[in-house]
Specification:
- The chain is mainly α and 386 residues long.
- The chain folds into three domains: 2-76, no CATH class; 86-176, Orthogonal Bundle (DNA polymerase, domain 1), CATH 1.10.150; 200-376, Orthogonal Bundle (hpI Integrase, Chain A), CATH 1.10.443.
- 51% of the residues lie in helices and 10% in strands.
- The protein contains 17 helices and eight strands.
- The chain has helices spanning 33-52, 57-60, 67-76, 86-97, 103-121, 131-142, 155-176, 200-209, 212-224, 228-232, 273-284, 304-319, 328-339, 344-351, 357-363, 367-371, 376-385; strands at 2-6, 11-18, 21-30, 239-240, 245-248, 251-253, 256-258, 267-270.
- A three-stranded antiparallel beta sheet has the order 1-2-3, covered by helices on one side.
- Strand 6 and strand 7 form a beta hairpin.
- It is elongated, with a radius of gyration of 29 Å.
């Protein structure tokens, strides 16, 4: 059982015996009547969990050096257990699943497991992990805030953190034949990401001030709507001047060449005269022996982070344009092509979409602003008919 003590310096200390060992955790809180009442309420909760066998040291003292010692003693209590601890099984789950993923996603999942899931659920037997545990942790993530008071994690990011947990628990429940505890779990509704495409005038302002080294790079981005990973993965051999085609065949992500996002993403883009001239200049002015079409001034492959940090945001500021993601070049290309009355099927193929649905659901609302069309033509037609 745990107790509250007051140290000689007047600060509150928790003192308890578990698994034959004494644990003492000091606090920086002075033993005022108010603070003692708060500590006693926490003590009551701790003793209740100790009686139920659900007490986890890291829940109360996450930064303590004694967490590891407690968990070793706790595990020793289950020498003949029939079920694995969560951290043991999720490592097995990861090893079995990772061959299905791209390297970048594999690293993301591994980081999620080590940074979020193991510290929270690692010392829990898989058959004892409940929906209440997951709901409580999810609420903790929802409550995280930045210094300005806004939420630190989006619903999409929280779903990404808990996704491996849900998948892992589904598998372990099936293999060890116990009731799946998360059958009533539902992912958070994800916020629809806001798009901020640029108008034709804004594109012109941007291109007018961007450095000459990056001018043609952004011409290609604004004219084609390629994803960052696609344009960074272009090689010289993917440019077919004879047939005036840009062949999208691979991505460049986190320092690695990988497959394109979807089968539809593997496509050929037609070169208009502007693209033809820009690509001719790019290849003619290459100063480094590299297969990549676009590189940094040092001849190294480009990362999305590099573009944002060293080129994109600085150029937006220089042009007096609002801050937006580099990915908005893709949205801008889509909106301006729609505003120019290009065939929707052609635009979808250019972007690597499977159909035209996204064009009308995501991009169409921005077309009036981009093209200066506000419905007046329809109004004039109807007035003329009356």
């Amino acid at each position: 059982m745990a107790q509250v003590r007051i140290r000689p310096n007047g600060r509150i200390q928790f003192d308890f015996h578990l698994y034959g060992q004494r644990f003492r955790e000091g606090t920086k809180t002075m033993a005022t009547p108010k603070n003692l009442n708060i500590a006693k309420a926490q003590l009551k909760q701790m003793n209740a969990e100790i009686d139920l066998g659900t007490f986890q040291y890291r829940d109360y003292f996450p930064d303590s050096k004694k967490v590891a010692q407690f968990e070793i003693l706790q595990r020793a209590k289950h020498p003949n257990r029939h079920f694995p601890f969560f951290d043991e099984f999720i490592d097995q789950w990861f090893d079995r699943q990772k061959q299905k993923w791209k390297s970048s996603y594999e690293r993301t999942v591994k980081l999620t497991i080590e940074r979020h899931l193991k510290p929270t659920f690692g010392n829990t037997l898989v058959n004892e992990l409940t929906l209440a545990h997951v709901d409580h942790y999810r609420q903790t993530l929802l409550d995280l805030t930045k210094k300005d008071g806004t939420r630190e994690l989006s619903n999409c990011r929280i779903n990404g953190i808990l996704g491996p947990l849900v998948s892992c628990m589904s598998l372990v429940a099936d293999e060890y034949r116990f009731e799946y505890p998360l059958r009533r779990y539902r992912s958070l509704k994800e916020e629809k990401a806001d798009s901020h495409p640029m108008t034709f005038e804004e594109v012109q302002r941007f291109l007018a001030v961007v450095s000459s080294y990056w001018h043609d790079y952004f011409v290609v981005r604004f004219w084609t709507g390629m994803r960052s990973c696609e344009i960074h993965g272009l090689l010289d051999e993917h440019i077919d001047f004879e047939h005036r085609l840009i062949r999208i065949r691979q991505n460049y992500v986190d320092g690695e060449i990988c497959n394109v996002k979807t089968p539809k993403s593997r496509r050929d883009l037609k070169m208009c005269d502007t693209l033809f001239d820009a690509l001719k200049r790019i290849i003619a002015n290459k100063k480094h022996d590299t297969p990549f079409l676009f590189t940094t001034s040092q001849g190294k492959p480009i990362s999305t982070n590099y573009i944002g940090k060293h080129v994109w945001y600085k150029t937006l500021a220089k042009a007096g344009l609002r801050r937006r993601r580099p990915y908005e070049t893709r949205h801008t290309a889509a909106v301006l092509h729609i505003a120019a009355h290009e065939n929707p099927l052609y635009i979808s193929q250019m972007l690597g979409h499977s159909d035209t649905r996204m064009l009308f659901e995501v991009y169409a609302p921005y077309v009036a602003n981009a093209s200066g069309i506000d419905g007046s033509a329809f109004s004039e037609m109807m007035l003329g008919a009356s």
